[in-house]
Amino acid sequence: xxxxxxxxxxxxxxxxxxxxxPFPIPIGVNLPRAALTExxxxxxxxxxxxxxxxxxxxxxxxxxxxxxxxRNTFDPESGAAAGIELSRLLWVRCGGNVEHALKAADLLxxxxxxxxxxxxxxxxxxxxxxxxxxxxWFRLRHGAEHxxxxxxxxxxxxxxxxxxxxxxTIYPKEILWSAKLLRGIRSIAQFSKRRGEANVCFDSRSR
Amino acid sequence: MFASIHAPxxxxxxLDCAKRFSPLVExxxxxxxxFDIRGLSRAYGEPAKIASEIDRVxxxxxxxxxxxxxxxxxxxxxGIAGICVISPGDEGQALSGLSMHLLxxxxxxxxxxxxxxxxxxxxxxxxxxxxVAVRLGGEGVYWQRVARGTARRQLRLVEEKADYSxxxxxxxxISLLEPLFFLLARFLIExxxxxxxxxxxxxxxxxxxTLEKKAEHLVTLRLPVPMVDQKALLxxxxxxxxxxxxxxxxxxxxxxxxxxxxxxTQEDFFAPAYPSPEKIELTIARIRNCVGTGNVGxxxxxxxxxxxxxxxxxxxxxxxxxxxxxxxxxxxxAFRRFRPPEKAQVISESQPVHIMSAVARGxxxxxxxxxxxxxxxxxADAWNREEWDIALRSGALYRIFRDLHTQAWxxxxxxx
Lengths: 207, 416
What we know:
The complex is a heterodimer.
Chain A: E1 23-25, E2 29-31, E3 35-41, H1 47-60, E4 64-69, H2 76-81, E5 89-93, H3 98-111, E6 114-120, H4 126-130, H5 134-147, E7 150-155, E8 166-178, E9 181-191, E10 200-205
Parallel strand pairs in A: 3-7, 3-8, 4-5, 4-6, 6-7
Antiparallel strand pairs in A: 1-2, 8-9, 9-10
Helix pairs in contact in A: 3-5
Chain B: E1 2-6, H1 11-21, E2 25-29, E3 32-36, H2 41-44, H3 47-58, E4 63-67, H4 70-79, E5 83-85, H5 91-95, H6 107-116, H7 121-126, H8 129-148, E6 165-174, H9 177-197, E7 201-211, E8 217-227, H10 230-243, E9 250-260, H11 277-291, E10 296-301, E11 310-313, E12 335-348, E13 352-357, E14 361-375, E15 383-392, E16 397-403, E17 409-415
Parallel strand pairs in B: 4-5
Antiparallel strand pairs in B: 1-3, 1-4, 2-3, 6-9, 7-8, 7-9, 10-11, 12-13, 12-17, 13-14, 14-15, 15-16, 16-17
Helix pairs in contact in B: 9-10, 10-11
């Protein structure tokens, strides 16, 4: 009898975990949500250009973003030119204090409701960054997993290490000039934590 | 039942008297106040006793009328001297002798009644309702009901501007924040309960602390969205006071809330999640407490050619900004700005050839420029500069400029 009625069994009503769609980014990959991503690169590598394009995608989808800026180097004019909806971007200026930046990022990533939280540690002294315990990065990752935000840590060097789900390293390839004008930067994005993923070349153009 | 008091030129006294009997009060005209007396029979007895109690409380000569509807009470108070109590069903008879000028109808209609030879309520009430409707329309029918004492309407209640504030003078001055928060919590619970009962919220809280041997300490919280959550408001005040504590012992506390209508939003099932206003306000207050006021917010680019022209604003609501499809645009070259610009020593011939600064040093491989920009020459924040884009041998790209007033070189930022 049970086998005869098997087809009439009620469907399972166990609630399914909501699936958070990843954010597409302009270099042809998806940015994972509820995870920590590291975006690293040297000066003039094109790293910030790629970061702003990620913020543009997320704010244009109607989601809110937060940018925790350790050295106050974000340029709103560049942000607006990249297409970021600035009214959906919460900018926290930490005036060089890494401790404040970590605290602010932790509060924001746990607050919920933000699609993307960026912790920009570019320019922070290496000696200070080395003193950050690994537990802080685990705490940030856990906050992102809990709230569903895409947490991006960006700087010159890898900081979060094993806490990051995706590591993107940007290398400069060439500077694009045209007569008296700076046209842009050609960069290469290397995926450190995805086996088999080919490097991607992209241009950051000024106009 | 409704009571109406008529005493020319004594509106404050009339209002005060009416509020002692009922919260539902209407200022019918500058000389008349009408109020609802239903339910007062338990306290005072029959309507006649209520009328004599009103007469006793008011303390000045006034005409008082009680009737089953507000219009009948108003007409009776105007036209019948002393105390007049009209039993339900007797309104037509009681008002029949009143002069038509007490009806309060429009002047044109009054002139028409004059031409028709109608002088009293009784004469108007006796006209056939159909004939009145044909000649005067719906308005005429209403005024005839008033004359008959059968009109029904709601009172136009006096809107009170309630004062949502609490204050306390302290016998012993408070020098610690902890006991202050305890008192503030009590005030907030009471005020939020008052606001909630009136379906209101607050968007501004003002805390005035009188200090011992010092000027007053003022704290003003302006909330981007109306809130009525006492815990969130207390936390906001705690954070604000922890960041800027009063400099001396507190002798008096005064807390005032600005009452506004609460925010009403309809959630969109398909819209992306956005931070809850209460939660995000608390989070921002915590961050502000940490990084300083003015360092948290949404940047807005100013309509100016001045370099780095922007202001910080509050985070927009769920409907902030235009919403697109999240399409992938081309990657735009970004600029990272040094604030303030880094001073530099530049060896320059026709163009920069070597730079020395805290952030960039070395031989300049490529230099493109110059571009001249100036503005605001009539103000103190004038600028006049010569800009260059330079690439160092290391591959780093910078924007440098020379201030043409001081001839000093600066590194404005780097392209990244």
